[in-house]
């Protein structure tokens, strides 16, 4: 409502100045200095309001679109899809996507994740999915578009889901070292319990990419659930944002640095018998506090449909799949 009122009033102010300017222009008298001066003022005002009008019209005035260190925050309307796609096609960009489907997560989520990714993830670019699972024979057959591949890697199953989620960092680091780094420009790491719903395209690619957590992007910093235990390596007292570990990406080099950092610190915690509040996510938040990401994805890139206030979400590009922790995490 507020947005509409301010938009309409801005529109009329701009219109009035433009009209006034043209009225002046018609009766301009070159020999009169007085007229010249008022024309210049009128023109400056018009240009100023036209500028305001268009910046208002194009941008996203109610969300933050840039960080204090000048990294863009990707919100719908802030970028041109075609420009990004053309740039990445010309550069022969290749993308690796890693996803872990261990235990019952495979049966519950993998098929929907992969089929929806084929409809929305980096269309037009060569993409290879790396599926890490303890049940390779149960990975469903998916029809893939040309230039898209799937590679299945067997991993061992840890009994606690917290360990599965933490050992992920070690596996990611290893696969970057052994396979990815010479073949792929970028690597993106995804949780499997998500469904693509809209374009998740080349605009999301960058050197070091973090995702704003849908539950925290609007909250004041003191509400962020950083690890507050000084015994843990993930301990932090202040930060920039609360990032969601469901998606992170970047160049192979940067993602490997992130994964190594998290893995080493998780192991140091384990030696002290400490576990960070939100496991690998706590360590990831610490890493991105010390090593600022070069691009942030807005919660449009990973939305929780249970959040009722959707006024900032113009496109749902990916949503959380409905969760059933009781069934998935026991057994
Ligand atoms: C991309 O690939 C094409 C065809 O292989 C090649 O001609 C072109 O030079 C490559 N472009 C870049 C930027 O590497």
Automatic annotation (TrEMBL):
<keyword id="KW-0472">Membrane</keyword>
<keyword id="KW-0328">Glycosyltransferase</keyword>
<dbReference type="GO" id="GO:0031982">
    <property type="term" value="C:vesicle"/>
</dbReference>
<keyword id="KW-0479">Metal-binding</keyword>
<dbReference type="Pfam" id="PF03414">
    <property type="entry name" value="Glyco_transf_6"/>
</dbReference>
<dbReference type="GO" id="GO:0016758">
    <property type="term" value="F:hexosyltransferase activity"/>
</dbReference>
<keyword id="KW-1133">Transmembrane helix</keyword>
<keyword id="KW-0808">Transferase</keyword>
<feature type="binding site">
    <location>
        <position position="281"/>
    </location>
    <ligand>
        <name>an alpha-L-fucosyl-(1-&gt;2)-beta-D-galactosyl derivative</name>
    </ligand>
</feature>
<dbReference type="GO" id="GO:0046872">
    <property type="term" value="F:metal ion binding"/>
</dbReference>
<feature type="binding site">
    <location>
        <position position="225"/>
    </location>
    <ligand>
        <name>an alpha-L-fucosyl-(1-&gt;2)-beta-D-galactosyl derivative</name>
    </ligand>
</feature>
<feature type="transmembrane region" description="Helical">
    <location>
        <begin position="6"/>
        <end position="26"/>
    </location>
</feature>
<feature type="binding site">
    <location>
        <position position="213"/>
    </location>
    <ligand>
        <name>an alpha-L-fucosyl-(1-&gt;2)-beta-D-galactosyl derivative</name>
    </ligand>
</feature>
<feature type="binding site">
    <location>
        <position position="191"/>
    </location>
    <ligand>
        <name>Mn(2+)</name>
    </ligand>
</feature>
<feature type="binding site">
    <location>
        <position position="304"/>
    </location>
    <ligand>
        <name>an alpha-L-fucosyl-(1-&gt;2)-beta-D-galactosyl derivative</name>
    </ligand>
</feature>
<feature type="binding site">
    <location>
        <position position="193"/>
    </location>
    <ligand>
        <name>Mn(2+)</name>
    </ligand>
</feature>
<dbReference type="GO" id="GO:0005794">
    <property type="term" value="C:Golgi apparatus"/>
</dbReference>
<protein>
    <recommendedName>
        <fullName>Alpha 1,3-galactosyltransferase 2</fullName>
    </recommendedName>
</protein>
<feature type="active site" description="Nucleophile">
    <location>
        <position position="281"/>
    </location>
</feature>
<comment type="similarity">
    <text>Belongs to the glycosyltransferase 6 family.</text>
</comment>
<feature type="binding site">
    <location>
        <position position="105"/>
    </location>
    <ligand>
        <name>UDP-N-acetyl-alpha-D-galactosamine</name>
    </ligand>
</feature>
<feature type="transmembrane region" description="Helical">
    <location>
        <begin position="38"/>
        <end position="57"/>
    </location>
</feature>
<keyword id="KW-0464">Manganese</keyword>
<dbReference type="GO" id="GO:0016020">
    <property type="term" value="C:membrane"/>
</dbReference>
<dbReference type="InterPro" id="IPR029044">
    <property type="entry name" value="Nucleotide-diphossugar_trans"/>
</dbReference>
<dbReference type="GO" id="GO:0005975">
    <property type="term" value="P:carbohydrate metabolic process"/>
</dbReference>
<keyword id="KW-0735">Signal-anchor</keyword>
<dbReference type="InterPro" id="IPR005076">
    <property type="entry name" value="Glyco_trans_6"/>
</dbReference>
<feature type="binding site">
    <location>
        <begin position="100"/>
        <end position="102"/>
    </location>
    <ligand>
        <name>UDP-N-acetyl-alpha-D-galactosamine</name>
    </ligand>
</feature>
<feature type="binding site">
    <location>
        <begin position="191"/>
        <end position="193"/>
    </location>
    <ligand>
        <name>UDP-N-acetyl-alpha-D-galactosamine</name>
    </ligand>
</feature>
<keyword id="KW-0812">Transmembrane</keyword>
